[in-house]
Amino acid sequence: MRHRCSSPPGKTSTGYAARTPSRTCAAPTRFPPPPARPNATVSNPGGDRDANRTLYLIAVIRLRYCPKTRTYANRRTTEGKSKKEIIRCLKRYIAREIYYTLRADLKNLAPTP
What is the pTM of this model? Predict the structure, then answer.
């Protein structure tokens, strides 16, 4: 069984998603909006729902308890962003943060010759 996050056989990517595979696995990835609704965002239907739910919970908990995240949310609110858009941005930031932390941990676990 093929993992949900892997790309189709024979297809390679050289863009941003190739450099950060976590974006293709977690649901916060976005597609271009349909022409009829240019301001809409469209979620990746191939995303991992469990990962998306976990990122959402982390974002909501940070909004409630982390002063730095609250300051960020207040700033984005004054810029005109909705709460939904703020949470989407937070989820992307958290996914990036987790990805690079995991990479650093794995690098430290690698045996040194």
Answer: 0.61
Q: How many CA atoms lie within 13 A of 55 on its CB side?
A: 27
Tell me the C-alpha distance between 8 and 14, whole Å. 14
Q: Is 26 helix (H, G, I), strand (E, B) or coil?
A: strand
At residue 42, φ and ψ (nearest 5 deg) are -120, 120
Tell me the pLDDT tens digit for each residue of 41-56.
666 666 788 889 999 9
Q: Based on the number of CB atoms within 10 Å of its own CB, is 30 exposed (0-12), middle (13-18) or buried (19 or more)?
A: middle
- Rounded to the nearest 5 percent, the helix, strand and coil shares of the chain are 55, 5, 40
Q: What pLDDT, in 10s, does the model give residues 78-100?
A: 999 999 999 999 999 999 999 99
What is the separation of C-alpha 113 from the centre of its chain, rounded to a whole number of angstroms?
A: 35
> How distant is the alpha carbon of residue 71 from its chain centre?
20
